[in-house]
Amino acid sequence: MDSLYNFLNTNAFYGLLVIILIVWAGMFSYVYSLNKKVKALDIQNDSN
Length: 48
Prior knowledge:
- This protein is mainly alpha-helical.
- It has helices at 2-10, 12-47.
């Protein structure tokens, strides 16, 4: 575990990239799930 801390201390840019990628992945998955819900509501509304 010390080698990971040492790596992140010397290369903080990679840690930042990992955090940014996690945030983007979370945003993408949220928008994707929201899109599925909106499509389901749209189909339900069209049938009425």
